[in-house]
Amino acid sequence: MNFLGTALGAATTYAVMKASAPSKPTQQFVAQLGNNWLAAVCSHDPARVTDLYCMDGILIGTVAQQIKRGRPAIRSYFDEFLTNDGICGAFDSRMIQTYPGWGIDSGTYTFRWTQDGEQVVVPARYSFVYRLTPGGWKIQNHHSSTIPA
Known about the structure:
Blueprint: H1 3-20, H2 27-42, H3 46-50, E1 53-60, E2 68-69, H4 71-81, E3 85-99, E4 102-115, E5 118-133, E6 136-146
Parallel strand pairs: 1-6
Antiparallel strand pairs: 1-2, 3-4, 4-5, 5-6
Helix pairs in contact: 1-2
C-alpha cells in the first residue's frame, strides 16, 4: 500500500476509533492510536498532529529545548519539527499497557529526513499516555528523547 493509502486508512480508522471509543482499550487499539500519530507526522501537517493531543497535553519533544504544554505550544513544536525535508518515522519496539480510560505506549522509534542532501537518522525512545476524553482518545502526555550513542 502506498503512503497516501496508509494515511487515508489511518484517518478513517481514527474516525471510527473516536466514535467507538472503548472505556478500556485493547493493546491493538492503543497501537493504532500510535500508528495514527505517526501517519499524521509523516503527512507533514502540524494541525493534524496537534489535534491528536489533549487541550492541556504535555509534549517533551525529541529535539525540543523546553517542555510544551497545551495545544498552542505543541503546535509550535510541530510547526518547526515537520519542516525537516521528507521527515517520517517508524516504530521499532513497543510495550503497551491498558487501563480503563487510559492507554500507555512506550518503546522506540526512528525518524528519518534529509538535511543538506544527507539522510539524517534519529533513533529515539518514547512514551505516549492516551486518555479517553469527550472528544475521543487523545494524547495526554508524550515524552520523546534521542537514544544515547
